[in-house]
Amino acid sequence: MSEKVKVTIDGITVEVDNGTTILNAARQIGGDIVPPAMCYYSKLEGSGGKCRTCIVKVTKGSEKDPRPMPKLVASCRTTVMDGMEVLNITSPEVLEARAGVVEILLINHPLDCPVCDQAGECDLQNLGYEHGLQKTRYEFERRTFERIDIGDKIQLHMNRCILCYRCVFTADQITNKRVHGILNRGDHSEISTYIQQAVDNDFSGNVIDVCPVGALTDKTFRFKNRVWFTKPVDAHRDCGHDKCNGKVTLWYKGEDVLRVTARKDQFGEVEEFICNTCRFDKKATSDWVIEHPTHIDDTSVIASNHYETLKPLHVIQPNQALQAANEVELHKTVKY
Amino acid sequence: MSRKLLLEHINVPGINTLEVYRQKGGYRAVEKALKTLTPEEIVEEVKKSGLRGRGGAGFPTGMKWSFLAKPEGVARYLVCNADESEPGTFKDRYLMTYIPHALIEGMIVASFALGAKVSYIYVRGEMMPQIRILEKAIAEAKAAGWLGKNILGTGYDLELYVQPGGGAYICGEETALLESLEGKRGNPRIKPPFPAIAGLYGCPTVVNNVESIAAVVPIINDGGEEYAKIGIGRSTGTKLISASGNLVKPGVYEIELGLPVEEFIYSDEYCGGIANGKRLKATVAGGSSVPILPANLTLKYANGEPRLMSYESLSEGGFATGTMMGSGGFIAFDEDQCIVRNTWNFARFYHHESCGQCSPCREGTGWMEKVLHKIEHGHGTISDVDLLWDIQRKIEGNTICPLGDAAAWPVASAIRHFRDEFEWHIKEPIKSQTQNYGIANYAVPIEKAPVTEEK
């Protein structure tokens, strides 16, 4: 099964292992053609296919069967075939459908980014900027839920949830005892723990990291600071837990560690899950061995304050006037 | 009088008991299949018959069976989908209530053909009486040796179980049904893998509608070729139609496919016309999820030729001027029915039944329902119609399972054909609360004319 297959995404051909999904093939190419993914998480088995933001158009099924697929497909759950041709950002149909999905994801979202701890590192926020409309066409009352505390360290703010099921898969696969799932049906469905019982597990904190929006937040970090004012630093410690290797990102404000998260890769997925002791209890610099400043992707607002080179943002790129206005900023090579 | 295959003995007293059913030639198909045919021959016979799935999609049953993976040492399952809950469809309930043994007989033959040792009938939770009837019938059949170990001394074992569902429409989607049968939340699975490869408990599984399975019985009795002679073109055999709405004689009818729609509605053998001497305004030809059509397009194609009750003929003209066979839930609306209200009602149903797994369906169905509610109650604005059109377009085709499409089609077709009525509701908000728009030009007969491209 280790044979390679060729797939062309937006005109770029790449050779990938048989059985790779279109999304992962696109990630191997990288750049703008990677479809956004709100629910797919490579580390969680069975995730994906739900949010529909990663939909792409398959214009040629494979070398053997060149028929196009009749509908847009979820790239995170469709495996590549040899000779497959896929359109993502070069297809107006895909972009329109994706904008539709984003609009639909936002109609019941409270849009309380100004008071949301996730703002600045929120996948939905990024997606909204890229594809969203200027104003909503939804004129009805948005659905609301009560906030629920899942244990003393995690808060569930169901209003913001987009039901990606990532935390359900995390609770299923990372923790031993499943006490976390979905209640009700349709747009009333809500994430819940079994009769509001705490998720009592050493790894429960990871549901915060996998959440693409601000539905699951760290109570120890709640309202402490905006993420773009904090400085992320990679660090590690010798964690006694046999499943946790203690490699984390510390988020500093001045001298204080405001929060600890797992390290995230360029697609916003955690590299390795960390235990609750590392996450919630070790918040002194003396607990950690500091490695280096975290690499922050330049599309993130966190990057606009510090670190590394600054590429022009998407809005600036095509606009000469904006480029001229920001010339000084753009030509700085290092920004601290 | 057309031929009846499934409902031939429906009026015989006591046909729900094994004894009377046997007297009327019941379980002949089991004897024939188990003693004289091999599983491959049965599949071949069903293929020859051209039987198409009666649950809605119309996929050829024989083809579906032949796709079933047959790895060594892995159990295979047959699951009967009796989770019939589409508004306007009640044929399976009728069949299970009055001739439960027809389904059981079909299950035995089909299970033998597929090599299943355990089969399930997944019945909708609200149909408790039917569940009891089936359980009683299964007990009878088992006592008489038609089920259990070593059926008829052929060495074939089959256990048949009835499983009540929790009453969710979404569990009629085959993968959601399998999830539910496994005891999980009834969310549709993301395909592939298809159930034919990995279905129930990860084993190859075939999911068939009640009527498809019952139709296997006459196919085996008379032979596939004989069955294929009934019907028209690729729509072979007979089909149960659940007729409801403003008809003189609503009910379940068995028709030969290819019957003209006009005859079905107006002849005394079937529905007997529109009740109270009114005129037909619109129909939904195959259960709530198929596009609604105005009366003139129901009876005739856009080019003026008569429309027939068959898979191809009903979908003639595509979505622009056609509809679909669906599950055969035929709903007729007379001139006093409000299409906006009906569309809202359907949207409300799909909003309530959306499983909430994928975003377009979860959020979009609720949005459509709210906009339609607004229009129906006289608070709409003219841009709402375009908004609705836009929402349905964003749902259709972008969801995991067909429920999203099923929610989008009725809204799309109502706007396509009845836009005047929507606009009247918006322009006359007060009048629309007390009066109906009436029949307008929806029943103006289509003259036979050269085909013109309809937009």
UniProtKB/TrEMBL annotation, chain A:
The principal location of this protein is: membrane
- Please provide, in alphabetical order, the Gene Ontology terms of the cellular component aspect for this entry: membrane
InterPro entries, alphabetized: 2Fe-2S_ferredoxin-like_sf, 2Fe-2S_ferredoxin-type, NADH_UbQ_OxRdtase_ferredoxin, NADH_UbQ_OxRdtase_Gsu_4Fe4S-bd, Prok_molybdopt-oxidoreductase
Entry GO MF terms: 2 iron, 2 sulfur cluster binding; 4 iron, 4 sulfur cluster binding; metal ion binding; oxidoreductase activity
Q: Domain (4Fe-4S His(Cys)3-ligated-type): give its ranges.
A: 93-132
Q: Which SUPFAM superfamilies match?
A: 2Fe-2S ferredoxin-like, 4Fe-4S ferredoxins
What keywords appear on the UniProt entry? 2Fe-2S, 4Fe-4S, Iron, Iron-sulfur, Membrane, Metal-binding, NAD, Translocase
> Would you identify the family this protein belongs to, as annotated?
Belongs to the complex I 75 kDa subunit family.
User: What is the name attached to this protein's record?
Assistant: 2Fe-2S iron-sulfur cluster binding domain-containing protein
From TrEMBL, chain B:
For this protein, the record's Gene3D superfamilies field holds: 3.10.20.600, 6.10.250.1450, NADH-ubiquinone oxidoreductase 51kDa subunit, NADH-ubiquinone oxidoreductase 51kDa subunit, iron-sulphur binding domain
The record's SUPFAM superfamilies line, in alphabetical order, gives: Nqo1 FMN-binding domain-like (SSF142019), Nqo1 middle domain-like (SSF142984), Nqo1C-terminal domain-like (SSF140490)
Keyword terms, alphabetized: 4Fe-4S, Flavoprotein, FMN, Iron, Iron-sulfur, Metal-binding, NAD, Oxidoreductase, Quinone, Translocase
Gene Ontology molecular-function annotations:
4 iron, 4 sulfur cluster binding; FMN binding; metal ion binding; NAD binding; NADH dehydrogenase (ubiquinone) activity; oxidoreductase activity; quinone binding
Pfam families given in the database record:
Complex1_51K, NADH_4Fe-4S
> SMART domains from the entry?
NADH_4Fe-4S (SM00928)
Give the main EC class.
translocase
Q: Which cofactor does it need?
A: [4Fe-4S] cluster; FMN
Per the UniProt record, which EC number(s) apply here? 7.1.1.-
The record ties this protein, via InterPro entries, to:
NADH-UbQ_OxRdtase_51kDa_CS, NADH-UbQ_OxRdtase_suF, Nuo51_FMN-bd, Nuo51_FMN-bd_sf, Nuop51_4Fe4S-bd, Nuop51_4Fe4S-bd_sf
Q: What is the annotated role of this protein in its UniProt record?
A: NDH-1 shuttles electrons from NADH, via FMN and iron-sulfur (Fe-S) centers, to quinones in the respiratory chain.
Q: Which family does it belong to?
A: Belongs to the complex I 51 kDa subunit family.
Its recorded name reads: NADH-quinone oxidoreductase subunit F
